[in-house]
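INTERNAL AUDIT FORM
Audit reference: QA-55
Scope: verify that the stored structure record matches its stored sequence.
Auditor: D.O.
Record contents follow.
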Amino acid sequence: MIHEGFPSAPDTRQALTLAQLNARVARQLTVPSLQSVWVTAELSDLRVSGGHCYMELIDKNPATGAVNARMRGIIWAGSYGRLSARFLADTGQRLATGIKVMVCGTVNFHPSFGMSFVISDINPSFTMGEIERRRREILMRLRSEGVLELNRSLPWPDPTLRIAVISARGAAGYGDFINQLFNTPSHLRFSVRLFPALLQGERTSASVIAALDAIAAESHQWDCVVIIRGGGATSDLVAFDDYDLANNVAQFPLPVIVGIGHERDVTVLDFVAAMRVKTPTAAAQWLISKGEEALEQLQFMGSEILRAAADTMAGARTRLAYFDGLLPLAPSTALERAASRLHRASAAVGAVGPACIAPARERLNGRLRMIETAASAAIERQLTRLRSASALADVLSPMATLRRGYTITRIDGHAVKSVASLSEGTRIETVLPDGTVYSEIIRK
């Protein structure tokens, strides 16, 4: 019975099984337009198993980094060895997650595993161009922000002996750097401390930036920073072509030395660091040569000081010998010259003395009389003022008041100004012109 208002049930004989649906999809994907197609994409989650290479091909939005599309990719074992070897030889790096590639392949649909892109060829030139393009974009951005040359313009401390090193803990490159630095014939005394960081993989940039932050917090303790990593696959160096890491190195307050990879390897850090060397050992050699330059400069300055001191001593000896020869004759010569000057002065005084002295004596006598007159007048004026002040003080003094019949009554040294402040039994003192009377109040 079919209820009114409900659609009739579909015919189960017309329904496809999932396998049948997948077979139809597979037949549709055999069109020529999906065979041997060149595709550009970024590799993600790449792994090798059983000789086959499995990955995910993704396409990102350049502005936001959001994934626009993704598809499973495969390179079968029969092609993987040949393609990976050619890619490594042409680009200097292995196929790895994060690399942009241009690959040729065929869209394949497996009934059990779904859709995938089977890769049969790869264009290494595209990847090399992408790496270089990305590197140029980072450098142009740093230049537009005005930070590209900052670290390279920092002055080098002289000497440069306190070294903060960023490297992987236990790395062979770090060991080579230390062995080279502390086994030098010049016996330079370096102070070195390792700030460990990851220098391989996706966390490289964040790890190195964290080490730089730790060094910056105590930058007064260090002369420079050395970022070193030994050789390895060029693909491991992709992490150093990172804007955030390059920006941190470019604006770091201490000079930075970068020794990453081999001579042929180049990263963005090589363009922003104060010094780029090819290996960790070369970084140590550069620091040693800079220290030896400072040592040679010190030795040269010491030689110059010694030479100047020797010249000064030789000149002093010559002058001393000259004065030693003059010394026996110097006293008599000096006495003769002094006697001659005294004779000439005496003759001059005798010639002009009387004529000059008489007027001066008269002027002096006149001024003496003026001084005496002025002094007498001043003293008289002061005496007059003093006598007037004394008479006024005598008139205004308390004793003058007492002599006119008044007295002063005090309690404990304080003058009594009102009867109200007195009470029976209070001891008082009364000051008279010729003495003081002490009494006690019996009745008020």
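Auditor finding: record pair retrieved intact. The mean pLDDT is 83.
Action required: none
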